[in-house]
Amino acid sequence: MTARLIVVVALVVIVVGSAARVVADPFSDVFNSIAQDTKRRNCWPDPFISGDRASVRSPFVIQVANGWRRQNMLGEFHFEPGSGQLNEAGRLKVRWILTTGPQQHRLIYVHVAEKNEETAARLAAVQQLAVYITPNDVPPVMLTTIADDDSPADRVDAIGRKFQATTPSPRLSAPGGGGGGGGGDATGKQ
Question: What's the pLDDT tens digit per position in 49-72?
Fold first, then answer.
């Protein structure tokens, strides 16, 4: 009878143990879910900050890239008309880009000409000068179609000179001649 009792007790323990597991799983899922939700609430908004910052910064990154593209662009006024060869302003700008501009922004953009042959001549002239200036570290020379809003240097210089010529001379007011606050009332009495 003892052996039978041991077998029955063992079976009861096995059945109750397996039933307890089935009943315990929903409770453990609930408790795990509560713990997970609590941890998420406590660390909010940290998981989302980096994505938010990246989405806010992305327009500024694009604006900076467009600004450097415009700054490093060689337009119509940097080339001799018709030949595609660099003029003095173009050579100076290429030299500035390759020697003075920040290292990460040393890209040269060439504005597309009206004719394909002139565009090819522009690219060849810029690449030749770039190899001459920096033979070991030649940056890429790329074509661009953004609007060229520049003005020729002689026009900019003429505007600056005319502005300087029309600037009035500084003048001081005559001594004792009004304009200053010396106290007194509206009748002029002190």
Answer: 888 889 999 999 999 999 999 999
